[in-house]
Amino acid sequence: MFVSAILAAGGRGTRLGAPTPKQLLSVGDRSILQRSFDTLDAHDNIHEIVVALPVDIAAAPPGFLVSSRKPVRIVGGGARRQDSVALAFARTAANADVVVIHDAARPFASADLFTRVILAASRGGAAIAALQAQDTVKEATTAAGIHVVAKTISRDSIYLAQTPQAFTRQVLAEAIMQGSSLGVATDEATLAERAGHPVRLVDGEASNIKITTEHDLRVSQAMARGREPGARSQESLLRIGTGYDLHRLGPGRKLIIGGVEISHELGLVGHSDADVLCHAITDAILGAAAQGDIGRHFPDTDPAWKGADSIGLLKRAVEIVRTAGFVVSNIDAVVIAERPKMAPHIDAMRRKLSDAMGIDISAVSVKGKTNEQVGALGRNEAIAVHAIAMLSPL
Fold first, then answer.
1. pLDDT at residue 182, as a whole number
2. How far apart are CA 272 and CA 298, in angstroms?
3. What is 80-94 written as a DSSP string?
4. Contact indicator for 106, 209 with CB cutoff of 8 Å
5. Strands 159-168 and 98-103, how do they pair?
6. Under a CB-based contact definition with an 8 Å cutoff, are residues 68 and 49 in contact?
7. In what order do the strands lie in the sheet with 98-103?
8. Which residues pair with 250 in a beta bridge?
9. E-only strand ranges, 205-266
10. Low-confidence ranges of the chain (pLDDT < 70)
11. Is 205 helix (H, G, I), strand (E, B) or coil?
């Protein structure tokens, strides 16, 4: 499957209020544009990249765009985002099976997110990354010049769209044609919907923030510090939390640890998927920010969390501590299990956890230990985890 990528960077980010175009501002050791480009450039399933830039920048592009290991084409953008994407689409390879579009202003989208969105589009024609709403959603109306609640909307059906968004070439061509005749749309998925194509939803990432305001830029700077190996904040402002969890093992359950399903005759018993590693890390993160524990936010008395994916709960915990003014810097955890052996699965767990928390995999440590056949853990009746989390201020 041949995949073309469009990196939408044709605007200037005037809402940020900076004299420099937003995409050229530095976040950590690289510009916003380079961070997004580097993810595409390193992705094994993306075969070419078309970058839409403001016309003056396109005339003298940054050096990293012209030294890529894969074909890169640069186009001058249009007046609107959809115009820039249309101009870029015209320069994609005619034999592209799937075209994936990403906003350069989202520099922390993971490679795994691109993979999942591309795969969903190849199967269904169109797919977008999106986050399900976590807060109660209100529809507003205006009465006497004051905004008041008109009604409450079920958050179960509300998703917040992100990029990447991917389409088969034919679907995107039809969507862009719709855009040329039906006016403004904020993303290509809207155009695909207008053209009558179903758009699949793929679980997005809480860390995949869009840099629009000065506050977003400050958050991104803090996230970049957390992703860079060896980076440190002022020690007096660091927060440290501990987490512990234990679940019994029983028949007829999947064994899921750190978001990874492990083949075993027994699984962990619990209200959710009983992912003991995610639960301990979630408690450590919440504790470091003094935001309670997993039982407070996701109680086992609430049917909403029945069978819940604990990687999703971990993502929600990251959002909770971000709202409190912190980002995750690093995690250290030990899984205590007599069987099965954890070693073959550690790297997969670290990848899942790092993606969920929006930090570099080098900042996630997971170790496996036995209990030397002592007690319930040693008799293979349960699995326990101890975890420590360090948070940095935004």
1. 64
2. 9
3. SHHHHHHHHHTTS-T
4. yes
5. antiparallel
6. yes
7. 72-76, 48-53, 3-8, 98-103, 159-168, 126-132, 200-203
8. 267
9. 239-250, 255-257, 260-262
10. 17, 181-183, 226-236
11. coil
- Residue 223 and residue 209: Cα distance in Å, rounded? 10
Q: Amino acid identity of 282?
A: T
Structure-token pair, residue 198? 């179903």
Supply φ then ψ for residue 310, to 5 degrees. -70, -20
DSSP β-bridge partners for residue 127? 166, 200
CB 130 within 8 A of CB 159: yes
What pLDDT was estimated at residue 227? 58
Place of tokens 């992912």: 275
Q: Tokens 């999942």 map to which residue? A: 116
Alpha-helical segments (H) within the chain:
32-42, 55-59, 81-89, 111-124, 169-182, 188-194, 214-227, 276-288, 294-297, 310-323, 346-357, 375-378
d(CA 123, CA 119): 6
Centre a 10 Å sphere on the Cβ of residue 277 and count the other Cβ atoms it contains: 30
Half-sphere exposure of 140 (CA within 13 A, CB side): 6
β-strands 137-143, 159-168: how paired? unpaired
C-alpha dihedral, 296 to 302 to 306 to 310, nearest 10°: -20
* Best CA proximity match to 299, nearest among 271, 258, 320: 271
Contact 328, 387 (CB under 8 A): no
Please report the domains of the chain, with CATH numbers, ordered by start residue.
3-219 (3.90.550.10), 235-393 (3.30.1330.50)
For 75, the enclosing helix (H) or strand (E) is strand 72-76
Angle (nearest 5°) at CA 88 between 127 and 107: 60
Tell me how crowded residue 291 is: count the other CB atoms within 10 A of its CB: 17
Distances (CA, A) of 35 to 24, 177, 178, 261: 10, 31, 31, 31
